[in-house]
Specification:
This protein is an alpha/beta fold. The protein has 11 helices and 12 strands. α3 packs antiparallel against α4 and α3 packs antiparallel against α7.
Length: 379
């Protein structure tokens, strides 16, 4: 643990919709609903310094800090959240919650259904990015925050940022959608389906009712391996692995992990199954595929017609082939057409989609300067 860490943190929970269920975009009702969340820094007297960070597919509420002095694994964006960092916890009150449908403390398919006493499984209703944000709004209300200074996030987190801006423009001063999109392309939907099919094909999946027995770890691991390839770039894979062998001097002429990249993907897949629920993977990836801000609004620009009072910082990365820069450029065009205050940066990087997690120095300067400008509008 270093001096620039937020230190020891604790996960909290908030439960709502106990008497009146929350209506979902599908028309289904869900309740009660629990959100796991963490907070860092202090909320000022005016309650004007709160920043909500939204996590990506494999993330959770643990964005920064450690759970104990012995903990070796900091939060997933620890290098950007803390004292003196991009999201400076000496200036801002930072909030991060696990999305509904997730598996790290929030209500999801692995949660006990109060009506049956068993885990929901596939009886859990299908959720959308809009539903995730609607649940977050209840949390922000619970914390007594009328208007967030900013909402920020990368990848699926960026989708939630855009949904916040479109659905609750009066509750947000600034939006930072990073390495994201306003809608999935056919290629992205295809990758999502391949991952889901890998889970379905695991004999342990049992139609989603596997909680009393062995988990569908093999299928989920393959899904993660496929997904993880899309987070990298060809350049980064050449740099990190090349055609190097793993623990061998020559080819084994068998089906072991000859190449370093094979061993890496197997490791990533195995580790993912230790902390993520296969059914949650199905629900969250489906929510990403359904996401399309233009749907129901006539156009993407129309979706932001009420959010002219929000300052936007849109960030993309040159080597990101999961959400290539053209996704962000389409978003910027729509925001400009809507008359929004938008700053766009397409950053040079060889790290692919994961650049938003790895380009720490660049992101720190960019985000810090933007937030300082937004702060001045509050004073």
């Amino acid at each position: 643990m270093n001096n620039h860490s937020v230190g020891i943190v604790q996960r909290q929970t908030f439960t709502f919709a106990e008497k009146e269920p929350m209506r979902l975009d599908s028309g289904e009702m869900l309740g009660p609903v629990t959100l796991a969340y963490e907070t860092y820094g202090r909320l000022n007297a005016e309650r004007s310094n709160a920043i909500l960070i939204c996590h990506a597919l494999s993330g959770d509420s643990h964005v920064a800090g450690y759970y104990s002095a012995e903990d070796q694994s900091p939060g997933w964006w620890d290098e950007c959240v803390g004292p003196g960092k991009a999201f400076d916890t000496e200036r801002y009150f930072v909030i991060c919650s696990n999305v509904i449908g997730g598996c790290q403390g929030s209500t999801g398919p692995g949660t006990i259904n109060p009506q049956t006493g068993d885990p929901y499984g596939l009886r859990f209703p299908v959720i959308t990015i809009g539903d995730m944000v609607r649940a977050q709004r209840h949390l922000i209300d619970h914390l007594g925050i009328e208007r967030l200074l900013a909402v920020a996030g990368g990848s699926m987190g960026g989708m939630q940022v855009l949904q916040w801006a479109a659905s609750y423009p009066e509750r947000v001063r600034a939006a930072l959608p990073i390495a994201t999109t306003a809608r999935h392309s056919p290629m992205l939907i295809a990758f999502g389906e391949v991952g889901r099919q890998a889970v379905y094909a695991d004999p342990n999946w049992q139609g989603g009712d596997y909680y009393a027995g062995p988990r569908p770890a093999a299928g989920l691991a393959v899904a993660r391996m496929v997904g993880h390839i899309t987070y990298l770039s060809e350049q980064s894979m050449h740099h990190k692995f090349g055609r190097r062998l793993q623990a061998r001097q020559r080819f084994g002429y068998d089906f072991g992990a000859d190449f370093a990249v094979e061993g890496y993907l197997r490791h990533k897949g195995s580790r993912f199954t230790e902390r993520f629920d296969a059914n949650s993977y199905l629900y969250v990836t489906k929510a990403m595929d359904y996401f399309d801000l233009a749907n129901g609004n006539g156009s993407l620009a129309a979706a932001f017609s009420q959010s002219k009072g929000i300052a936007y910082l849109v960030v993309s990365f040159t080597s990101d082939w999961l959400y290539p820069p053209y996704h962000s450029k389409e978003l910027v065009s729509a925001l400009t057409a809507a008359g929004a205050d938008v700053t766009y940066c397409n950053l040079e990087s060889t790290w692919g989609h994961d650049a938003f997690l790895l380009e720490v120095e660049t992101m720190t300067g960019l985000v810090s300067n933007f937030l300082e400008r937004v702060e001045k509008t509050v004073r």
